[in-house]
Design a protein that fits this description.
about 140 residues, mainly alpha, membrane, transmembrane, transmembrane helix
Length: about 140
């Protein structure tokens, strides 16, 4: 009689992962298809998304412009977040420069820090105005 380890090693040598992978993928596809069919039987419903200023009687151009407007606003606020991290990085870098170099005074870095913070405030105010104007 063969031992369990010899049976396992024989089975391991015979089964190739390249031939097993399509079989597993086919079974996963069949399981997901049957789950989707069950959802369809139970009344699968598409979620409703509403955009302000767009209704069922709006033209496709109006819908497209509304979607582009909201994508632009999303991208502009992502830019504000990126700008905030850039300002934070600049401030930390400048203060570390003063701490490392004893000859550099704190007054030398104030210009860069104030300019970075002023730029961030300008971007935040502009994007806030743009959001109020477009929304």
């Amino acid at each position: 009689m063969k031992t369990l380890t010899s049976l396992y090693s024989n089975l391991k040598d015979k089964v190739n992962t390249a031939t097993l992978k399509p079989f597993v993928m086919l079974n996963m596809t069949a399981l997901s298809t049957s789950a989707a069919a069950q959802d369809a039987e139970n009344g699968f419903k598409v979620p409703k998304v509403t955009l302000p200023g767009v209704n069922e009687s709006s033209s496709p151009l109006d819908m497209f412009l509304a979607i582009i407007k909201y994508l632009f606003l999303f991208a502009s606020w992502i830019f504000v977040i990126f700008m905030a991290f850039t300002v934070l990085k600049t401030v930390i870098k400048e203060f570390n420069k003063v701490r490392r170099d004893e000859e550099t005074a704190i007054g030398d870095i104030v210009g860069k820090v104030v300019a970075s913070i002023g730029g961030l405030l300008f971007v935040v105010v502009f994007v806030g105005w743009l959001t109020a104007y477009l929304a």
